[in-house]
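Long-time lurker. I teach an intro course on protein structure, and each term I like to show students one example going from raw sequence to a predicted 3D structure in token notation. This year I'd like something fresh instead of my usual example. Would anyone be willing to generate the tokens for the chain below so I can use it in lecture? Attribution to the forum is fine with me.
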Amino acid sequence: MSYTKFLRWTLLVGLAAVFVIPFIIADGGVGYSQAPGMGNLYIPFFAMFFPFITGKNFVFRILIEVLLGVYVLLALREPKYRPRASFILWALGIFVAWIAVATIVSVDPTKSFWSNFERMEGYITTLHLFAYFLMVGTVVAAEEWWDQLFRVSIVASVVMAFYGLLQLAHKIPISSQSGPRLDGTFGNATYLAVFMLFNMFITLFMLVRQRKSTVAQVLYGIALVLQLAVLYYTETRGALLGVMGGLVIAAIYIGWKGTGGEWRVLRKISLWGLGTIVVIIIGFFALRSTSFVKNSATLSRISSISLSDPTTVARFEIWHMALEGFVQSPKTVIAGWGQENFNFVFNKYYVAAMYSQEQWFDRAHDQFLDWLVDGGLPAFLLYISFFVLAVWYIMRSDLEVPEQAVLLGLVGAYAFNNLFVFDDLMSSVYFFLLMAFAHSLSKKMPPRWMFLSRPATERALAVAAPVVVVVTLLVVWTANVPGIVRAQNLITALTTEVPVKDANGNITGQAKDPKVLLQNYQTALGEGIWPGTPMGRQEVTEQLLQYASGLPASTSIDPSVRQDTATAAQNAAAVMMQERPHDARIELFDGAFLDSFAQYPQALQVLASALSDSPKKQQIMFEIGVTYLNANDTKDALPVLKAAFDEAPAYTDARVLYASALYYNGDITDGDALMIQGFGTVIVDDDRLLQVYVNTKQYGRVVQIWQLRVKNDPENTQDELGLAAAYYTNGDKTDAIAALNRAAQLDPSLASQIASVITQIQNGTLQTSQ
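-- Reply from a regular --
Happy to contribute to a lecture. Here you go:
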């Protein structure tokens, strides 16, 4: 009995511990800022690439794997903890089996299974979520422990809400990608919003479930206020509108079903609430042009929703690409492209109108369409069936009307939210939790005659226990440790400075030896800990290519180390392109790398392949054009950059690069016309254009651009020095000296050096590159 009790409580506590996972950030936890401009120097303990994602997901996987081993032993011993049949269980089982087929036949089965550090999804996560569903839907249901589990979730959401409010008060920083929007410990405002969406409805569910307890009403009421406040300041439109829609659904359901005398008061409250929501909506649209709405970041974001809104237009374009990818062939209709392969669809069907958006979308930003692309029509229909079956079981359950109403509102709110975003780990966990709860509402038990309904003997359990322990430890190690090590090794490679204590004990930053950096990258690329996995290798390769691309401009690095690094980067890119052919992203990275090392023919060959894989992507055209220009082939650069401009004339980068190609080809008239048409002038503060004017000896324009910079930032010493150089190159010594004198006044520490330069100008010994 004690053995069974231990297993049971281990599972219950472990399943509740899942709600602690959102607070995990794998950033090492320590930074030093004593050295000016150093940034953070991370202690390499639990510091991983994509710290907001990897830490949470690895902990979740390990926790579920361990709990699954415990569950197997408990289910062997006690039949009541074994899965019972329901349509939801069958639908989920078929879904998991089908996604396995889609993974096997996918464009890249390896990535479909393992995913990457940025997302940490893939089929491996699907399996873990299914295991989570099985354990929650059996053990928590058998113990009738739902209320306790929901309370733990609510407590976690309240702690997260306080964390978010500290961000709002600027006591805790918000991650760089979220800007002013609260993101808690998720590193993404949308993820925090969906977390609060689920917990708001769970809190409402518990509030109506314990409506006779005054203490519970007060505590849950406080939790709701905190959750709503944080949700509001995430400025996430889909989640906010989803919550409002879910409340409308709940109110309508109570108004429809709450006809009995016991529900009369609640029915009136719901109808009044429904009316209030309608008034709020009407009032919002009436006031959407007022300063009150415009001065609120959240309200202004909601009021900006329209068919012409750039985000809305981008969503429509991405959804259209997803549908094109879906109908590409019978295979994509039936089995899709496989998880984690949406980028192939995005690249192939990319349209130039997306130039102002993220250039490497790996999701359709609609969870329904994501499953349509990932697993074809069967996966899409099965995913929809989860919502339908959840609604069916809730409405047929013995739950009271307000409890049913809140759960139906949650299903509706989440479904609406997922029309515009994709899942992260915790939103998936909560959805599987919701399905497990709906599954538990089924009373159908396994037939008594089934072998699996019999408890295992003590002898059988004694044999099974060590086997389960060994298998569990093996799975935990092989599925997680190699990935964790690579994620940590990549952080080590990306850390270009190391902390060093000086004689006074102060910590300062010292540049890492490039040879050591190369070794770090090679370690991250290697198999690492046995048995090794391919997870994260593409991200390491991309980071290595970017690092190596900057080496030719550095004169302080040993040429042999530079060459070794270049060789390592090229070899890694070749391996990755062989394993993942027709990936325009890795091809572009490799092409840019080859261009930086003046390997122009090879770069153009790789970039041509990239353009074939993504024919409309201007970034690839830009890189091809720039490569031609770097190779002094201005004639071949012109048509490529013209094609990029013709795809989207409103794209500023395309206009500047096309004009640059015209200037390099000696066509000053057409180049000027192009610039004036787009900017109203040929004097535009753009580093690329400035370099073009220098290279084509249009020094008067170089002077004008530097004058513009000084005008816009008169306290900038470097701009004054740049202007002085431009004057001198243009033959204007007087103004060059005047600019140098102004620079000396701005930064007296440079006075002696500037005086020496002025002397050289005056006696005619200063050399220029003219």
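Some talking points for your students: The chain has a mean pLDDT of 92. The chain is about 70% helix and 0% strand.
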